[in-house]
């Protein structure tokens, strides 16, 4: 076998899944490792494990970045440029119409692009960056949100995106194919293990950095190799939700057997394009067909949590921690838990946050006015606010009602809730302008200009 053949064989072997260990619930709510044939625990989980509880709740794809090759159609380029121009307008009424409607999505068109991607469309499901390039970069680079992936599968995301990409690009009937630029795999679980009970030396990894974190004096988790082509995080997800507000996970965990009290930890790997290409995994279908292999590579080749042995200086021989035995053996060919039944493409703040903002304004007004009568203060606030903005709208020469509705329209664009201008009217205007531009260009050429 040649060196080149050996190298390819090694890469292929690196993503082959080991014997899978399914998490089986026992009568008292705990779990133990048992393979598909019901045999005793595999050698990835020591039989003398002192792990009292390991209960996986959910596993799957948390973040997904897709790219679609292609070239933008000139009419769509004109449309997106016009919408971007509207987003850059100093007038709120113009900004509010910087929207792109597609099926049940009302995308906000951003006033700024990204390097090599002049156009950005965004709602709660997708952030779509669109290029003008003809081959150097993808036509579309898409971030699929974790909220969407808690509701639908990665393939469903691709099914929703492909018609849109095909509409924007030039494909002549050929279906655009999604490539994966990054994928984040996670496992949410409950465990009796103290996640702070080991130090950084217990992590045996190819990465150069290992860090522990705490918030307000409470241990919050570990990170390994942040910023690299592959990185990992083990962190307190219940604590993180207090900041992110993704409380819909509570219901999904409860459906999977969570008691509503125990800490839920998340083990997560971020795998970027370089590591996917290294293992000959580029297209979405091929990546999704090899999740077991990717997880195996991440948890056995790239990173292991071990039990350090003082009498053995060779870290590669240290036995794996019982917790790691369970985590590394999650079977990605089995369903990863319930999906959220409720989902919206809108990016609206919670009604509780709006109430909080109103209460803050009202109490500030009451303190300023020295008024402790809530109903009276609320009426006074509305009256004074109306007078104030009537003056402003009069100064700028806009009807007060129009002034307020413009503010509503701008918020609706940001929240993806209301289509402020019918999309067919916008498209007609743009395509009509494109036709006029082409006619002018043709006339100039015909006249020898």
Task: Walk me through the structure.
With 449 residues, the chain is an alpha+beta fold. The chain has three domains: 18-65 and 182-328, no CATH class; 70-176, no CATH class; 351-415, no CATH class. The protein is 39% helix and 21% strand. An eleven-stranded antiparallel beta sheet has the order 4-5-6-7-8-3-9-14-13-12-11, with helices on both faces. A hairpin with a 2-residue loop joins strand 11 (210-215) and strand 12 (218-224). Helix 2 crosses helix 15 (423-446) and helix 12 (351-369) packs across helix 13 (374-395). The radius of gyration is 27 Å and the shape is flat. The protein starts with a helix and ends with a helix. Mean pLDDT is 85; it is low at 1-49.
């Amino acid at each position: 076998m040649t060196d080149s053949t050996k190298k390819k064989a090694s890469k292929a072997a690196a993503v082959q899944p080991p014997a899978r260990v399914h998490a089986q619930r026992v009568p008292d709510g705990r779990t133990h490792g048992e393979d598909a044939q019901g045999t005793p625990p595999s050698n990835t989980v020591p039989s003398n494990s002192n792990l009292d509880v390991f209960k996986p709740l959910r596993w799957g794809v948390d973040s997904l970045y897709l790219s679609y090759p292609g070239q933008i159609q000139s009419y769509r380029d004109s449309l997106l440029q016009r919408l971007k121009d509207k987003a850059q307008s100093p007038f709120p009424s113009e900004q509010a119409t910087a929207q792109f409607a597609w099926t049940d999505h009302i995308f906000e068109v951003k006033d700024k692009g990204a390097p090599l991607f002049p156009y950005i469309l965004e709602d709660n499901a997708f952030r779509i960056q669109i290029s003008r390039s003809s081959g150097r970069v993808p036509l579309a680079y898409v971030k699929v949100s974790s909220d969407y992936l808690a509701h639908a599968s990665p393939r469903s995301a691709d099914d929703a995106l492909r018609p849109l990409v095909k509409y924007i690009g030039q494909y002549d009937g050929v279906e655009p194919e999604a490539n994966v630029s990054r994928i984040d795999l996670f496992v949410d679980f409950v465990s009796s293990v103290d996640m702070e009970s080991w130090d950084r030396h217990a992590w045996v990894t190819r990465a150069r950095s290992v860090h522990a974190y705490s918030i307000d004096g409470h241990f919050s988790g570990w990170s390994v190799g942040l910023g690299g082509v592959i990185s990992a995080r083990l962190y307190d997800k219940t604590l993180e939700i207090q900041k992110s507000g993704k409380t819909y996970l509570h219901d999904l965990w409860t459906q999977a057997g969570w008691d509503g009290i125990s800490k839920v930890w998340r083990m997560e790997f971020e795998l970027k394009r370089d590591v996917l290409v290294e293992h000959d995994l580029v297209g979405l279908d091929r990546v999704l067909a090899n999740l077991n292999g990717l997880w195996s590579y991440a948890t056995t080749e790239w990173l292991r949590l071990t039990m350090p042995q003082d009498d053995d200086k060779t870290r590669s021989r240290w036995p794996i921690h019982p917790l790691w035995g369970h985590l590394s053996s999650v079977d990605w060919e089995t369903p990863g838990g319930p999906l959220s039944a409720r989902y919206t493409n809108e990016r609206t703040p919670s009604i509780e946050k709006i109430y909080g903002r109103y209460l803050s304004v009202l109490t500030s007004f009451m303190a300023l006015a020295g008024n402790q009568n809530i109903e009276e203060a609320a009426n006074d606030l509305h009256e004074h606010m109306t007078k104030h903005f009537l003056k402003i709208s009069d100064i700028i020469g806009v009807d007060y009602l129009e002034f307020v509705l413009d503010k509503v329209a701008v918020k609706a664009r940001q929240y993806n809730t209301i289509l402020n201008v019918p999309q067919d009217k916008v498209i007609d205007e743009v395509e009509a302008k494109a036709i006029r531009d082409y006619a002018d260009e043709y006339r100039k050429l015909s006249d020898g200009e």
